[in-house]
Amino acid sequence: MGFLSRLFGKKTQQTQAAAEPVEYKGFFIYPEAIAESGQYRIAGRILLEKEGETHEHRFIRSDVVISRGDADELMVAKAKMMIDQMGEKIFH
After folding, report:
1. InterPro entries recorded for this chain (predicted)?
2. Taking the model in full, what pTM does it have?
3. In a domain, 5, yes or no
């Protein structure tokens, strides 16, 4: 079955269920690691609610790690760094 799946283009990437959001400086960080070939790609969203509007920034990094927990931890760290460096400019 694996050979046929690869032959006919079955996707090997899967997005895992989202972890609980982490609040940081008014932003909400949602780690959403992507399972890929036995590893996890760092991915997620940063959300900000402001004046009744929800702003969202999604990103997928080239980094892959062995465990889902490590991917989520790195995503949160990278998101915090982006927030510190760019603030609300993330959404422009």
Report:
1. Transcription_activator_HlyU
2. 0.77
3. no
